[in-house]
Specification:
Keywords: Amino-acid transport, Cell membrane, Membrane, Transmembrane, Transmembrane helix, Transport
Protein name: Branched-chain amino acid ABC transporter permease
Number of strands: 4
Strand order of the largest sheet: 1-4
Membrane topology: Multi-pass membrane protein
InterPro entries: ABC_transp_permease (IPR001851), BCAA_transport_permease (IPR052157)
Organism: Intrasporangium calvum
Mean pLDDT: 83
Largest sheet: 2 strands, antiparallel
Amino acid sequence: MTDFLLIMVTGLGLGALYFLAASGLSIIYGLMGVLNFAHGAFMMAGSYAGWLTMSNLPSGLSVATRLLVAVVVAIAVGAVIGLLVEVVLIRPLYRHHIQQVLVTVGLSLASVAAAQGIWGADPRTVEKPEWMGGTTVVLGARLPNDRFVFILVALAVFLGLLALLHYTRLGLIIRAGVENRTMVEALGINVHSTFTIVFALGGAAAALAGLLYSQYAGTVSPAQGGSLLIYAFIVVVIGGMGSLVGTAVAAVAVGLVQQLANFYAASGVGDLSVVLLLALVLLLRPTSLKGAHA
């Protein structure tokens, strides 16, 4: 019973990280039709921004305080990078999907090379608050505290994005612009600036995911964003391209399947089980590759 509870909580925590990584990817594709292969670069930027912030703040501050400041800095960095990428690279290429893929793949490769050139290819250790590195005993199981943080943050982001899209004027404009951009522009609304905000939101969510994943792994490295991007794409495809609710459900499923397979089968089988889950979903529901709005 204790082992099962531990697996479930760690699986939910991992799923929360996958959701944070995939949420920005999902809203950018679902609302703008842009398949952003540079999303891993956004996550890498967030993890390095957090690491640099924590390393350069006064050592007199507690690790938890430095982490909170790092979260704010990482989100801001991710939003700015997302904004710049949309304005400079993506905006001229709307409705040119092949060119979008080539540009974002090139940006992803260039960002990894730049990070390796500046900080090296070796992982750098990240400080973790003492409480997050500890455990809490629940029903006899020692549960990692950081998983609770990941779950709460993911839940807050999920509810916040849903509220933004369905209960604000900005969300109304975004959804209307996706359905009929010409009509919205005829009403005097600047759709381009609205889509820039969407890209900035996606960049901010990715940067937050990158920072929290560095807390999970204990290190930052140039390849970290790329490895997390693979799971983000799997989650988005399983959940339905562009469906935020589907992305959340798929992230939980992927995290739980991975942890259960690793524990009850063998270490490493979890990755294979996730790929098999993806293949099963595509066979039974090939429309997962088509856009669906949350």
